[in-house]
Design a protein that fits this description.
The protein has 336 residues and is of the alpha+beta class. The chain is 35% helix and 28% strand. The chain contains nine helices and 15 strands. Strands 1, 2, 3, 4, 5, 6, 7 and 8 form an eight-stranded antiparallel beta sheet that branches. Strands 9-10-11-15-14-13-12 form a seven-stranded antiparallel beta sheet, sandwiched between helices. A hairpin with a 2-residue loop joins strand 13 and strand 14. The longest helix has 26 residues. The chain is elongated, with a radius of gyration of 32 Å. The termini are far apart.
Length: 336
């Protein structure tokens, strides 16, 4: 029997061509590679689960000596990554494309860290805390990136949420909490984390006093903004507070900025008029008390000074709307 078997195998080998032998060997090798790959994948955990498992045996910032970036972290979350820190020199490494916005506004440093739900480690969020040089600077980067579709946060004056993220100002920091999904449990944890950190934040100096210079009448809620430099393309306009007003059916921008004194304010208002005229603007005749009016690119600008404050109307659709908002600004500033 064995002799016959060996003879059959010898005949089979002799009948196989070199090409057939090569093809057979290649098929066997491929099958072996697939089998090994399947075994490796079966033994490998999801990265989030793997990292979460490594930290789930201790509380955040305890035995390993590492402190979490947020001051308060709810018990429903576990740390998913070590804290990262970025300075003006390397902020581009983390947010390339947006770093210039923060650097121009007065950026100190940024720290970030990831957390996951304790009961569902594949649901995670990342906390970004941008420490600015003051409250106005923090408000500036918040307001210039504000999303129109955001819903206000109840626990903080300047803050809003989207389906999977929170954005707010606390002290001199601007914070973003970005979640991997809009999962309800994950967003509840994010809200608890944010509210706890706002409640425990230290008072920061440098309140937004100039915000009170914007009249509340006809103000579109949540549209206040601070442009720290080159507002409206004019390089002498720095730290300009703006807001959108609804005048009739039109929405138009009002603005204010403080200067050291009345003389400086008058000079700056005149300089803005000259800037507009140099860029194609044309003077309009308006009531003397309303200041200077310029028609430019199909819109109307008005600028005036009231004591140490420069104020005005930007990009109004017509003269009547511009004059109505200018009167509102003028009356409000006179009452301060």
């Amino acid at each position: 029997m064995n002799r016959r078997w060996r003879e059959c195998m010898r005949l089979t080998d002799n009948a196989s061509s070199p090409l057939e032998k090569c093809v057979s060997a290649a098929i066997l090798l491929t099958l072996a590679v697939i089998a090994v790959s399947v075994l490796i994948v079966q033994r490998r955990y999801h990265p989030a689960v793997q990292i979460a498992a490594s930290v789930s045996m201790h509380t955040i910032g305890d035995a390993d000596g590492e402190q979490s970036v947020p001051r308060f972290v709810p018990s429903s979350l576990i740390r998913l990554s070590a804290a990262e820190s970025f300075t003006p020199d390397n902020l581009y490494d983390k947010i390339d494309g947006k770093a210039e916005l923060y650097l121009a506004a007065g950026f100190s440093n940024m720290r970030c860290q990831r957390y996951a739900l304790r009961d569902a480690p594949d649901q995670w969020l990342e906390w970004f805390e941008y420490r600015m040089n003051g409250v106005p600077q923090a408000f500036s980067v918040f307001s210039t990136q504000r999303r129109a579709e955001g819903e206000p946060l109840e626990f903080v004056e300047h803050g809003y949420r989207t389906p999977n993220a929170l954005f707010f100002v606390t002290g001199s920091s601007y914070v973003e909490v970005v979640a991997s999904s809009s999962d309800s449990a994950l967003m509840e944890a994010a809200l608890e984390m944010a509210a706890g950190n706002v409640a425990s934040a230290e008072e920061a100096s440098g309140a937004l006093a100039e915000m009170k210079l914007l009249p509340p009448q006809h103000l579109v809620a949540g549209t206040q903004s601070l442009q720290t430099s080159d507002a409206f393309g004019f390089d002498q306009f720095k730290n300009v507070y703006t807001a959108t007003y609804r005048i009739g059916a039109a929405e138009v921008t009002g603005f204010v900025l403080s200067t050291p004194g009345a003389a400086e304010a008058a000079v700056l208002a005149e300089a803005y008029e000259e800037f507009l005229l140099a860029n194609g603007g044309k003077k309009l005749n308006v009531a003397t008390e309303l200041g200077r009016a310029i028609e430019i690119m199909g819109t109307v600008e008005i600028v005036f000074s009231e004591g140490p404050v420069v104020a005005g109307v930007h990009s109004a659709p017509d003269r009547a709307v511009a004059e109505e908002l200018a009167r509102l600004l003028k009356a409000h500033l006179a009452s301060q």
